[in-house]
Amino acid sequence: MKQPIWILAACTLLIMSCGRKTVPAKTTDIRTTNSPAVKAPEHKNVTVTPVPVNEEKGKTDTKKEIKEELLPMVVIDGMGNIITPKEKLPEEIAAKADYRILSRAFTPNQRTNLVYRYKIVPPRILFVPESYIKTTSRGKYVVYRKKFWYWQKEDGLFYLDETYYK
User: Fold this and answer.
1) Using an 8 Å Cβ cutoff, are 132 and 72 in contact?
2) pLDDT tens-digit series, residues 125-152
3) Are 74 and 123 in contact (CB under 8 A)?
4) Which residues contact 154 (CB under 8 A, 6 or more apart)?
5) φ and ψ at residue 4, rounded to 5 degrees
6) Could you tell me the pTM of the whole model?
7) Where are the domains of the chain?
8) Which residues on adjacent β-strands are paired with residue 76?
9) pLDDT in tens, 6-65
10) Do 158 and 150 meet the contact criterion of CB atoms below 8 Å apart?
């Protein structure tokens, strides 16, 4: 008679413990980031110096010009807002980019998933200059904030890997 009581008590305890569900608390704090995709390279103090005149050949003075280096830019943030207008992008990329199609936000489910898993909503699309790009057999990519991978598509822009929000 004692054995069925203990079995019944154990089954009741098992059913009660499995019936509890843990639901994460809802957060309303959705952070977006507009910081550069990767660290900008450090430049030493470089000045423009005149080249000495070559008197033998009769050349005139010329100055060395330092080419301005492009920095990574957020094109479309996680909310679908256009951060970088087409005028600031290089011409070959701006011609291919269609902002009507690109300016889509994450769905509410995707956004809550990103906030729950990563505590931020990363940008959807980045522009990254060639000096920051890494290449593999799968394609060209860049790592944003040491955790988000962006892959380059045909238009030259980098899109967030779909594994983060699917």
Assistant:
1) yes
2) 999 999 899 999 999 999 998 899 999 9
3) yes
4) 96
5) -65, -30
6) 0.59
7) 68-166
8) 82, 125
9) 888 888 877 777 766 666 666 666 665 555 555 555 555 555 555 555 555 555 444 444
10) yes
